[in-house]
Structure formats: C-alpha cells, structure tokens
Design brief:
- It is a single chain.
- By secondary structure, this protein is an alpha+beta fold.
- Helix content is 29%, strand content 20%.
- It is built from 23 helices and 36 strands.
- It has a nine-stranded antiparallel β-sheet with strand order 6-7-8-9-17-13-12-11-15. A six-stranded antiparallel β-sheet has the order 1-2-3-10-16-14, covered by helices on one side. A three-stranded antiparallel β-sheet has the order 20-23-24.
- Strand 11 and strand 12 form a beta hairpin.
- The longest helix has 22 residues.
- The protein is globular, with a radius of gyration of 28 Å.
C-alpha cells in the first residue's frame, strides 16, 4: 500500500490534485541578479545591491526568509525577525556580492533545510538568528581587505564570542498542508542563550508587484478581516483568508503597506504612495506608526514581540486558505503532527533498507535541500531588453550586451536551482544532475524539468540549451541526454513504468542541441570539440572561454569526451525507442557512427584528429593547435583527463535484440571502417554475459588512467576523487606565452585567483557531479569486464578490486564527508576544524551540502546549500549505500 505522500504524488501525476501548486518557491535572494539589472554595462551586483532590497520593488522575482508561494509567485508568505539590535528588519538572508567577497559571492548566514516532501505537504527549515547586532558593515569591510590567498571572513568569525555563548535564536519554520489550498505555518523560536532576550516575529503575506510593469494593471489589496485575520481576492489566486495567532494567546498586530519602491529613500524622487515596501521595517525598527496602514495594502505583516527567557520557546502560527474557517487553529496541531508522521512514513518506504541510521539522516536532509531548492524563475529576455511601458526606457547598449541573442527565452516556472542564495538561477548541467537525484523521489517532476529545457521558450532556435542567466550563450557539458536516460532507467527500475513518450520528446529536443554542438563547437571539422570552460571554471591555466591571441585553437579533451558520451546517450535512447518504432534504428546507427568518429579523432589516427592522448604519460590532455599546424599539450593532471572515462556503454545481447537493421548496418560500417576501431574499446569482442563495450578507453588505457586516478598522491582523496591531482602541489604546471606566465597548482579548497569570478575552484577540490559520473562509468565497465579486470585500490596498496568494488569504495569516501566519524568523537568532515559546529548538540547534526569539498580534509567549500547537485549523495546511497 502506498504511503500517504505517495498517494498525493499519484493524484498530482494523474491530474486529480494540485498538491504541488504551493511550495518553497520563494528565493533566498533576488537582488544582485541579472534579471533585476537594467544598467548599460551589465553590473548586476551594483545596480541592485542588498541595501536596495528592502526598499525597491522587484521586477521579476521576490525573495524572503523561509518563504512559500504559489507556482506563479502571485502571492508570497515568509518570515521576518528583529532582535532590537539590528539596524534593519531581517527579511532576507545577507551575503556578499561577488566584488565584495575575496572568494566571490557568499551568503553569511547559518540556516539548514531539514525536512520536506515532494508535494510540500510538509517542509521544515532552521535559521540561526544572532542576538547581537548583525555585523553587516564588518563582514563587507574585512572580506574586502582580504585577498584570494586568505580565507573568507565568516559570520562565526565576526560573532565568535556570541556564538560560543549560544547567544542566538533557533528559528524553525514549518509548513504543512491540510489540503492543496490550505497551508499551515508554525514559527518556533528557541533562545539558546544564557539570558532572556527580545525577539520580534513577523509572518508576512504579500503580492509580487506585477502592476508597476503593465499599464492599467490592478494592484490587489489584502484587507483586515477581523482580529488577527485578513482577506484578499485577486484574479490570479481567487479568494484567500489569512489567520495568525501567538502561542501565548497575546494579540498580534497587523501592519499593512504596499509592495512599492521607496523612491525617496533611494534618491529617485517622490513616492507615489505614502506606504512603500519598507514600511514594516520603518514601523518596527524606527517606530514610525505613519509608515503603515492599519486596514489594507498589497503587503501585510503580523507583528508580536516576545521576551524569551534563557532556554525558552515562543511560537507564532499562521493559516492561509482558500475558504474562511471559523476555528482556523482548532485542528492545527493535529494536521501538523499527521504530516510529520506521513513524512517519516514516506522516507521509511522510499530510502533503501540496507543503509544505516546515519546514512538515512544524510539522505533525508539532502532530499529536503533538493525540495527547498525549487524556485520560481521569471525572465522574459525580450521584454527585459525592451523595458516596460510605464517605466523609463533601458539604455540602448543592452541590445548588444548580455543575452541579447536570447530574445525568445521567456521563463516563468518553478525550476530546480543550484543553490537558493548563491545561484538563484538554473544552469542546464546542474539541472541534469538535480533531476537524477529527484528521480528517486519524484520521477514525474524530474522528467518535466528535463523536458522544459527543450521548450521553444527555453531552447534557442539554433538548438542550444540555455547555460545560465549570466551568459545564456555559454555552453555547459551536454549531460541532459545522459540524465534523461538515467531518469528513465530509475523510474523503470523503481516502478516498472517505461515512459517511452518522455524519451521520444527528449530525443527530439536533444537532436537539436546535438546539432548545435556539431555545427558550432567542432571548429576544424575534425570531430574534436571545444566549448570553453564547460562548467569547470578555472581548471585550465587560462580562461578557456576566451579566444587565444594569435589564432590558436584550444582542442579540449573534456569537450570531445562529453560529446562522445552524448553520442552514447543518444544512441541508447534511440535503440530503446527503436524496439517500439523501427524509425529510430537509423538514428541509433548515426549516433553509433558519430561516437566512433569522435573516439578515433582523439588519438590522431592517420592525421585526421588531434592527439589528446599522451602516450608517455598515459593520460589525456587539452591541446593547443598552433597557427602553423603544430600542437602543444597542456600537461595538467586534471579532471579534463578523466572525463574520457564517462563515455562508456555496456550493451547486453537484449539491448539490440530485434533491431536487425541497426545490427546489419553497424556490421557493414565496422567492416568498411576497421580503422575507427584502433585505440578504442573493441566493440566486437564479447565480455561478461556476451556483452559488448562501447568506450573511448581500451582496457590498457582504462587501467593506466585508473592507476593515476586511484593514487592517494594524485587524484584519490579520503573523501572522493579530486578535480586536480595532488601531484601539482609540489609540481605546479607552468606555461609561458605572450610575455605572461600561467601557473596551475593544487589548491584543495578555495581558488587563489579571480578567474571566472573566483567563487569556485576546480584545481583540487572534490565535486559531486563528476564523481557521480566516475562511479557510473566504473559500474558500466564492470558490467562488461566483471571480475576479469581488477585494479589496485588504492594504487600501491597491492590490494586488487574489481571495478564495481572500486565504485563502491569511492561512494563510501564521498559519503564519509557527511557522516559522523565515531573514531573522532562523531566529527563530520564537512564542518572542517570548527570545534563549536562539530560538538555543539544544536549544530553538529545539521548538515550543510556544499558546492564542493576540500580535497584533503573533506570540509565544505563554496556555496553552502548546493542541493543542487550535491544531492547526488542520495543517488549514490541508493546505488551503493550500505555495501561496505
């Protein structure tokens, strides 16, 4: 019998309920985004800084603390706080902009996504709010004084004495749905400090400002509807009732204002209304009673002040529904308790039985982060360039600036985001990995997300998928076809449902994107591909997105290997579809041939390609093709040289059963082009279970690469596979060109340069997406070689393991980042050397899922809520968890 949550999902998927309509789709940050930037020079961070956020109405997206909204973000709920010491109301997370941070943008708050379900029937997050004045200026000043060689100055550093004395509030925000249109919210504040402390809690309700951008558009009103109650009615959401109460039964004040820009504060002229966006801040923090209306507005806040004793707890509850309720809090506790229990039931049913309790805690919090990372994303590029009729015309330079070639892009949907603060915008390759993790929880949703990239209002007319809003023209690794096949496989394995209609639609979209790559990224027509940075920002010795100065061409090992992997994914999908429609046999053959051409070209056979394989080093490198036709290999031991592992498929006999046309033509092709089989895996030689292997790597080259990858002095860390070999710690790679010297050295944590903004680092840390690809590749190779191929693990140990065992060992090391280490008093590697976070009972079991991890220690680095692709830990636990 399905769980209650699974039943809700089934209803949604059958079109019988709208449980997914309301959710945590409110971003943690909308300021400093490309969407809100109307400057001539594209300086998004400075055009709309944090200081403007409380006073300027957003054009495209709202933000808030612990927020909820509908899937078109018409109406929003969130929480604001004030400790009577901060200079401003705490309505949103604070962080540094990219120019302010010595390692780029970075949120400077502590919060955790602790629980959630796919339908958002229950969601829970925790925010740790300091009782001292929040050090806004200090964080900006000190980080601005530091260079890239120094660590970031964190909130803990600024308020260390206060945190060590536990002078903060644990503020838990819980949502539960009584029905799809009946939402409960409980805000619970616990004083962790030694003394009583004041706290103002302000649950908010407001409309996203849509009326300022359309002539004649209505500004909806929220009106008082009785003591501690409000009512609104708008065409977009219909009738709604909002109720609030305090846990100690004291009255809650209602403050109304308008979600309108405070032009006067920003020095942009008089205000058209006396009530503006920061009216509630002005009322609470500055005591200005005239700043709010007591009857109606497009923005509402309930307000109550608590004096919470040491160790004490205070609560505020909200109910928001489509129908009035005579006793809105009568069944509140019952519903909340029931939804919590159903959430436990959901995870009990869905998580693998073989994983232990510690792994289950990690998996559940990673799932919660994935669900909280669903964000409403709104961006109409043509209208953004043109401007809105009621507003001043934007500078004309924008028609030739950022994203001007993407006029057809018009997004207005909920999308899985990499990180709710640092990256509140989607990136196509991040999204692919999000969907793999989501497939174990809600495959229907994962499929819809992948299909969306092929909609005409996303995909460019030239076939390209949008990269990310800072530059839609950039290219991410083409992994969406691989992800689509994995999602299809996972759903089929878990439910028995083979969604061929999904594969058909994905295949059409991917054909266009594949054509874009063939036509735009193979500069010499040699089946050797570039692509630029390809998601691995600073992995090269120079900016791989920038053309070389004298007409040289950068031929990329990773770009070419990603394309080989793309061919395999497309061939696999076409072969699956061909079992039901013979038309796809010819398509499968075309991608089979493409793969062989690309794999062949990587080793310059007969002078037709570029030799990306270094015979002496037994490794793949990027190569610079000089104007005179000579080549120069960039001998950096990096993830670039491991990406060729990813292009692999083991095909059992039934994979092509019944595809007689494909088998016949493939045999003909191989007979007439045997040259293409040199230095690639021997596709015609059977392996375990009579399987066939398609791979760039021969057995000899696979063994050579694994020898290097599994060396602790090289790529193998105690916590996974590094993005750059530790060999470069003592042997930096140096390149001199055009009077400049470029150096690549092993950096296990933060970057030491501003290349690609300096907010990420591929020169040593551990990244989950590529580690996941490595684990999947090893699994595929094992399916062909079985126990016939064993390698040393670790290199030099003398211990031989088959490739499935190696995949399992790497997964165990990745999992170790988050698990408590019983040999070290339960310390988690992710928390690094901060003893307070490691040992305090109110911190140690809350797990941050960072963007990447220290290559030596496993400590979290970069964006701290990257679930996002670090939610791939869920996929790894499903596939390999509990096997050690």
């Amino acid at each position: 019998m399905p769980s209650a949550e699974q039943t809700r999902l089934n209803e949604c998927n059958a079109g019988e309920g709208e449980w997914r309509r309301w959710g945590p789709f409110l971003s943690d940050r909308a300021w400093g985004t490309v969407r809100e930037d109307y400057s001539a020079d594209g300086d998004a961070w400075n055009y709309f800084p944090h200081d403007h956020a409380r006073s300027r109405a957003y054009r495209w997206n709202e933000d808030g603390l612990g927020g909820f909204c509908d899937d078109k973000q018409h109406l929003c709920l969130s929480v604001a706080l004030w400790n009577e010491k901060d200079p401003i109301l705490k309505e949103r997370m604070f962080g540094l902009s990219n120019p302010q941070g010595n390692h780029g943008e970075d949120v400077k708050e502590y919060y955790f996504f602790l629980d959630g379900t796919p339908t958002h029937s229950y969601m829970r997050m925790l925010y740790k709010y300091p009782q001292a004045a929040y050090p806004y200026d200090d964080l900006v000043k000190v980080n601005g004084e530091r260079n890239q060689q120094q660590p970031e100055y964190e909130l803990f550093d600024a308020l260390e004495a206060d945190f060590l004395a536990n002078r903060y509030f644990d503020v838990t925000v819980e949502y539960a749905k009584a029905s799809p249109e009946d939402i409960l919210c409980r805000i619970t504040a616990v004083n962790r400090g030694p003394d009583a402390a004041p706290l103002h809690i302000l649950p908010h309700l407001w409309y996203r400002n849509r009326w300022s951008w359309d002539l004649g558009a209505e500004r909806p009103a929220i009106r008082v509807a009785g003591p501690m109650a409000a009512y609104t009615n708008a065409e977009t959401v219909g009738e709604r009732w909002w109720y609030v109460r305090s846990g100690d039964s004291r009255p809650v004040d209602l403050f109304f204002t308008e979600n309108e820009t405070n032009f006067e504060r920003l020095g942009e002229g008089p205000n058209p209304t006396p009530f503006v966006k920061d009216g509630v801040h002005e009322r609470v923090v500055n005591g200005n009673a005239a700043a709010v209306n007591d009857r109606q507005g497009s923005k509402l806040a309930g307000h109550i002040r608590f004096e919470i004793p040491a160790g004490g707890t205070s609560t505020v509850e909200v109910r928001f529904r489509a129908e009035p309720h005579s006793a809105p809090f009568g069944d509140f506790d019952q519903i909340l308790t029931q939804r919590r229990s159903e959430t436990d039931e959901f995870y009990q049913a869905i998580l693998p039985a073989r994983i232990g309790p510690d792994e289950r805690v990690v998996a559940r919090q990673a799932c919660a982060g994935l669900f909280w990372s669903k964000q409403y994303y709104h961006f109409d590029v043509f209208r953004w360039l043109k401007g809105d009729e009621p507003q001043p015309t934007p500078p004309p330079e924008r028609w030739h600036g950022r994203n001007h070639r993407w006029k057809e892009l018009h997004n207005a949907e909920v999308i899985l985001m990499p990180d709710t603060w640092e990256y509140p915008w989607y990136a196509s390759w991040d999204l692919a990995f999000h969907c793999i993790a989501m497939a174990r929880l809600d495959p229907y949703y994962a499929k819809k997300q992948l299909l969306r990239m092929g909609y005409e209002w996303y995909q460019h007319a030239n076939g390209q998928f949008p990269a990310y809003e800072w530059d839609f023209d950039d290219v991410n690794p083409p992994v969406t076809a691989f992800a689509s096949w994995r999602v299809y496989q996972i759903e089929k394995e878990d439910t028995g449902h083979a969604d061929l209609e999904f594969l058909k639609e994905i295949f059409q979209n991917e054909m266009l994107n594949f054509a874009f790559w063939i036509n735009r990224k193979d500069s010499g027509g040699r089946d050797v591909f570039g692509g630029g940075f390809l998601g691995m920002d600073n992995i090269g010795c120079f900016d791989r997105d920038t053309p070389l100065p004298n007409g040289e061409q950068l031929e990329q090992s990773d770009g070419t290997s990603w394309m080989a992997q793309y061919c395999i994914a497309m061939m696999t999908i076409a072969a699956e579809l061909a079992k039901h429609d013979p038309f796809y046999q010819n398509m499968a053959l075309k991608y089979f041939e493409h793969f062989l051409y690309i794999a062949h070209a990587m080793t310059n056979m007969d002078g037709q390609g570029i030799d990306l394989w270094d015979q002496e080093d037994q490794f793949f490198y990027d190569v610079v093709l000089m104007a005179d036709g000579t080549t120069h290999a960039l001998k950096i031991h990096s993830m670039v040289g491991l990406v060729p592992l990813f292009a692999v498929l083991t095909a059992e006999p039934d994979r092509f059963a019944g595809l007689d046309l494909f088998v016949e033509r493939a045999a003909w092709f191989l007979k007439h082009r045997p040259d293409l089989l040199r230095n690639v895996a021997p596709v015609a030689i059977p392996g375990a279970n009579n399987s066939r292997l398609m791979a760039i790597l021969t057995r000899e080259r696979l063994t050579a690469i694994l020898h290097r990858m599994l060396d602790p002095a090289g790529f193998l860390s105690d916590y996974g596979i590094r993005s750059l070999s530790r060999y470069h710690l003592d042997h930096p790679y140096e390149l001199k060109a055009e009077g400049r010297e470029f150096v690549v050295k092993y950096l296990p944590a933060e970057s030491d340069s501003r290349l690609f903004g300096g907010n990420s680092n591929w020169r040593g840390p551990i990244w989950f997406p590529v580690n996941y690809m490595i684990v999947r590749a090893l699994h595929e190779f094992y399916r062909h070689y079985g126990d016939d191929l064993k390698v040393e693990f670790p290199t030099g140990s003398g211990v031989l393991k088959n490739l499935d065992e190696v995949a399992s060992e790497i997964t165990a090391r990745l999992t170790r980042i988050f698990l408590p280490d019983r040999s070290r008093n339960g310390r988690r590697a992710v928390w690094g050397e901060n003893d307070y976070f490691q040992t305090d009972p109110n911190w140690r079991d809350h797990i941050p899922f960072h963007e990447y991890f220290n290559g030596d220690t496993g400590a979290g680095v970069g964006a701290s809520h990257q679930t996002g692709w670090t939610a791939l830990i869920v996929s790894m636990l499903f596939e390999y968890g509990g096997r050690q």
